[in-house]
Amino acid sequence: MSQKMMLLSATLSSGYGVQGQAWRAPENDTRNLTDVEVQVKLAQTAERGKFAFLFAPDFPGARGDMENQAPASTLDPIVTLSVLAHETTRVGFIATGSTTYNEPYNLARQFKALDVLSRGRMGWNAVTTSDPIAVANYGEQVRPRAERYERAHEMITIVQALWGSWGEDAWVGDVDTGQFLDMDQIQPINLGGKHIASRGPLVIPPSEQGQPVVASAGGGEYGLGLAGRYASVAVGSSTYDFATTRQEREMYRSAAHQAGRDADELKYFTGFMPIMGSTVEEAIRRRMQMDEHLAPQRVPMLGQMLGLSLDASRADQPLSGPQLESARANPADPRSSRALEIAYQGWTPREILAHGVIDYAPSPVGPPEAIADYLQDAFEAGIADGFWLQQATYAIADDFVDEVVPILQKRGLYHRDYQGSTLREHLGVPRQYGQDPRVS
Amino acid sequence: MSQKMMLLSATLSSGYGVQGQAWRAPENDTRNLTDVEVQVKLAQTAERGKFAFLFAPDFPGARGDMENQAPASTLDPIVTLSVLAHETTRVGFIATGSTTYNEPYNLARQFKALDVLSRGRMGWNAVTTSDPIAVANYGEQVRPRAERYERAHEMITIVQALWGSWGEDAWVGDVDTGQFLDMDQIQPINLGGKHIASRGPLVIPPSEQGQPVVASAGGGEYGLGLAGRYASVAVGSSTYDFATTRQEREMYRSAAHQAGRDADELKYFTGFMPIMGSTVEEAIRRRMQMDEHLAPQRVPMLGQMLGLSLDASRADQPLSGPQLESARANPADPRSSRALEIAYQGWTPREILAHGVIDYAPSPVGPPEAIADYLQDAFEAGIADGFWLQQATYAIADDFVDEVVPILQKRGLYHRDYQGSTLREHLGVPRQYGQDPRVS
Ligand SMILES: Cc1cc2nc3c(=O)[nH]c(=O)nc-3n(C[C@H](O)[C@H](O)[C@H](O)COP(=O)(O)O)c2cc1C
Ligand SMILES: Cc1cc2nc3c(=O)[nH]c(=O)nc-3n(C[C@H](O)[C@H](O)[C@H](O)COP(=O)(O)O)c2cc1C
């Protein structure tokens, strides 16, 4: 029990998977976008796998290749998670919410209501929203980074103060005396900054974990400042080798330390996108099926990674000797060296791509043991406290939970059951109510 | 079937009832505020009663006598209704949302996501938020009425345009061709006014009723202008006699007509607060139990209504002959003449109050037949299209559904089952998608 174990999480997206054409995969119904039962099933799978949380990235806007790819986010994170919280009992949830395009009172209220509904299983991924497509939906142009993060600090401060504005023992509810609340313990916060203000109090009692966990994603100098001060979860950026990832984790840890906290209070998660099958060949074949239609865009991208001119008409021919000889890993793309390594093994461009070499996260390939080996190596190399499963298609979550999780458990790397009932307990981070007195 | 029947709705509050001390009633657990199952049960009761919708008033703030009374609103309407939508199949929901303290994109997204989740059962009660306690939670002071309503028009226009920005047949989802959306049918709205703007589109497909219904409450010149243009439901203000209520209904109907719509597209609901028992005496006794602790405040209020000086020490003595002789109905309070009438019958002040004479809506008293008689008279007098049950305590919704509804059905005044599955069908109002082309 005292041995440190890895944590796991998975992605809540629009109901298909993080691969933009997953909606065409045979196991997905094309109408999953509006079928909340698909999300309920994912949450139950994550719970069966004793995952710490489902992570719901969110962009309030229509971006990317909308003609051919399903939207990336759920219809609305608060609406979807309200249902999932009600249909599960243990798994946690981290939903993304903008610090720039929400009123602190509204955001504080919805997240704390969800925290109470879920009995202490909610987290808030606080993002500043810098995508021009998203900000246009609020009639704006992208605000300068410094301004966005200044507001983000105000926002988190006010939200946490509102969360703490109903004192932990304020709820008397004495039928005989008729006292419902001890109003000495429910006081206005009267907080305001340059951008936003709120008087409070917020009339929502504490949840089983006190208040929602704060999470942060994205890094950068400003992002680290935010995460170091307030976050219990940091979701790492797209990194592909152990050294870079471990370095990012260290940056987060020292940001927490600099803010006056214990570095262990900030759990760092890094992404992975497993490609599973009973053998490497089968795993590749399954992924090729799903990626079937992506060759026209992706084969030329692979060419750029290898310094070769490639197009989709050559997708199924192994690279020639002269091609392999002149191939060079593109130093500007951290995924290139792995692509080159796989090319040397003699695969065709389509097969190389099916190894996930242009996925947004490292993609271990093969049978369950191979996936478990990757996670074991990564965890033992100290690159992360937890791993964030980005399932190309939702079905991979089931495969992973049913086939990889038992191996990790057998190896003593992963818990056999939840030890507590709240997200804070799952993460092993301290209870917090209101603002953190150590952080100014 | 072709005979016009009344519609019914009930109140979704914080889990006890609209009487502020309902949390002390023996049938309520003092912790109902955080127990969503209580709300689920109410929704199922309303559905058993074939109600058109549950109505969730909402004030984003802590107001009133918080020490002794439970909060009036649910923890958060979107969070609560997401669960209720998932746990029911027919009953509709109308949630209150501020036109002043929300971004149109956020509000449009959450309500349409809920409309999709509920398969077309959502409505939005658009309010401008003028309570100083609520607006202080947004760091503001109350805005002038003209400004609030100018913004409200912009808000509803933009929200409805966003709702319609995903064309009704835009969702192709053709696995073979790989086309997910027909982007010709999904276009930015590029709408902006003096206060707010949004580019869009909103990436949520139509629900079974197209998009949520708009509702309006509160009246006044400005409120009528809003309701006439956009609303399918108007919830009337506190009126106590048939003539006044019918007049308010007519004002709403002519506002709709003036906006270029058919007056029948705007359904007017008026409130009622039944006090039920197998006899009048038992009904009064039950209500007295619940109001037990209110005498100190309410007996003097009754005195003011009757032009008498009364205090709680006299709560249980019938009014004396001289008192009855000098009593006069206070012309400034429309509830006074009924209070006087009941006083003449010889009841004590506490008993007069237990007739609901200072409730916020007319309060018929007695056995189920008496409640049904009241609704029949009111409906046949043409005062409303529907009645909004304000249950003093949640349990009254069960009593009403199990005992009064069957009488109304037997009398042919109320439907025996839902005819359709959407809120628009329940109300008998036309489908709408995007903005109403008749309204400018
Ligand atoms: C793993 C990860 C997840 C992210 N999730 C979101 C998200 O859900 N929504 C969002 O608007 N931005 C998201 N971001 C973007 C970051 O919040 C941040 O805006 C971005 O890294 C750009 O940095 P900047 O804000 O310093 O310009 C994510 C970033 C990373 C690395
Ligand atoms: C039946 C009814 C229900 C109402 N519900 C709400 C509500 O839930 N939230 C709110 O802020 N105001 C509510 N109001 C207040 C009105 O929206 C409106 O603000 C009020 O009548 C004052 O009018 P004004 O906006 O013209 O100043 C309600 C009013 C009535 C009559």
From TrEMBL, chains A, B:
Residues 317-337 are annotated as: Disordered. Residues 34-383 form the Luciferase-like domain. SUPFAM superfamilies: Bacterial luciferase-like. The keyword Magnesium does not apply. Keywords: Flavoprotein, FMN, Monooxygenase, Oxidoreductase. FMN binds at D58, T96, Y149. The keyword Oxidoreductase applies. Belongs to the NtaA/SnaA/DszA monooxygenase family. This is LLM class flavin-dependent oxidoreductase. It comes from Janibacter limosus.
